[in-house]
């Protein structure tokens, strides 16, 4: 395995939940992925975009941030850690649909 070039820095981050995901499954794990090592070119025959950089396809999952950092350090990979953004959840109360003096219109 060749060592990454100066532009191939491993990125360690916690991926955000998808818009279709309401639960907490797979939302507490950390990922390690590499920045692109070379630009993509169009294949003259098929017209598909591609490159010879196979590290861009690699995504490793870890249970904790410390495990991901330990893996990068054990393999001599330069890395950057992106801390997760705080999630703000506004609690909704069903009873508020029927409260006295509400200003919103009834929608259903």
From TrEMBL:
Principal localization?
membrane
Annotated GO CC locations: membrane
Gene3D superfamilies, A to Z: atu1810 like domain
Which positions, given as ranges, span the membrane?
Answer: none
What keyword terms does UniProt attach to this protein?
A: Electron transport, Membrane, Respiratory chain, Transit peptide, Transport
**Pfam families, alphabetically?**
NDUS4
Where it sits in the cell: the answer is:
Membrane
Name of protein: Oxidoreductase
Q: Name one GO biological process term.
A: electron transport chain
Against InterPro entries, the record matches this protein to: NADH_UbQ_FeS_4_mit-like, NDUFS4-like_sf
